[in-house]
Write a structure and sequence with these properties.
Helices cover about 65% and strands about 0% of the residues. The chain is built from 12 helices and no strands.
């Protein structure tokens, strides 16, 4: 992953081609989401941080130049900076989203009693579903939705941290970043913390294809958690075996107390050699799981 071509150019081209096709739809928000997820996965996989940072800077500068040449999206950005000034035009959706959230109070108007869904917040069932939840269930209901997404992110991070299979680890991390980042962007847009990007709220917004993709991603994450080899059990097993050897008369004890009698280097060097010789015992190899096994050989002639 530290190499230029294998660790940066080839995966970058793959993500760039897909991002370019999405960009020309045009869908700038999903393109930015894909770019952030790709950069995060390359960073965790071990790619050079300097190349990733330079790519992010160049991509951000190019995005700003394209934004200045696109009057519609530039007006959306200006409406984000001053929602009240543009509340009759480009900022209508964001302004009434804030009104819907504010009118809900702590506990909301109750289910089905929301007033802003009657045409005041366009596309409220998709991009601005959280504003309806905040109006009908209040701050408590909207906060519960945010807490549930935080739980998903924490569980996904824990799964990616404990699994030692590189493929499963990267897949778990990528899915976690995708769900968490998409939810963060949607919540930020609804609360006018970010400009309007048109990104749905995972598992909540209306749309069958989005729900299928998110449930599939969550199923893959659960599969990694259930069947992926975990590091904790093997590390604890190795530490337990190492602690049993840490006694007077054992290999480590004899190494410590008889260091003066041996002339094979310093105590530190002998200890390092002993650890290297016992590496397979301290950290045993992890058996392959069914999804990791190589294909069966074909029939012989």
């Amino acid at each position: 992953m530290r190499e230029k071509n294998t660790g940066f150019v080839y995966p970058g081209l793959a993500a760039g081609v897909i991002g370019l096709l999405i960009f020309v739809e045009p869908d700038w928000g999903t393109t930015a989401l894909l770019a952030m997820v790709a950069l995060a996965m390359l960073a965790v996989a071990g790619s050079c941080w300097g190349r990733l940072a330079s790519t992010a800077v160049v991509g951000g500068a190019l995005f700003v130049l394209l934004l200045l040449r696109n009057s519609l999206r530039l007006e959306r950005f200006l409406a984000f900076l001053d929602p009240e000034k543009y509340k009759g035009g480009a900022g209508w959706q964001g302004w009434h989203s804030l009104l819907a959230l504010g009118s809900g109070g702590w506990f909301g108007r109750f289910l089905g009693e929301g007033a802003h869904k009657n045409g005041f917040v366009p596309e409220q069932q998709t991009d601005f579903a959280l504003s309806l939840i905040g109006e009908e269930l209040g701050f408590v209901g909207a906060g519960l939705v945010v807490v549930l997404f935080v739980i998903i992110v924490l569980c996904g991070t824990r799964i990616a941290w404990k699994v030692i299979d590189p493929f499963g680890q990267l897949m778990a991390f990528g899915i976690t970043v995708l769900i968490g980042l998409q939810a963060f962007i949607n919540v930020a847009v609804v609360t006018s913390t970010l400009p309007n990007k048109g990104i749905a709220l995972p598992f909540v917004s209306y749309g069958g294809s989005s729900l299928i993709c998110m449930l599939t991603a969550l199923g893959l994450l659960i599969s990694v958690a259930r069947y992926g080899p975990r590091a904790a059990d093997h590390v604890l097993q190795g530490k337990f075996k190492a602690c049993k050897r840490m006694k007077v008369g054992g290999p480590v004890g004899s190494l410590l107390y008889n260091s003066a009698e041996s002339g094979a280097g310093s105590l530190k060097q002998r200890l390092i050699r002993w650890i290297r010789s016992r590496r397979n015992t301290l950290f045993p190899s992890v058996p392959l799981h069914p999804y990791q096994r190589p294909p069966r050989p074909g029939p012989t002639a």
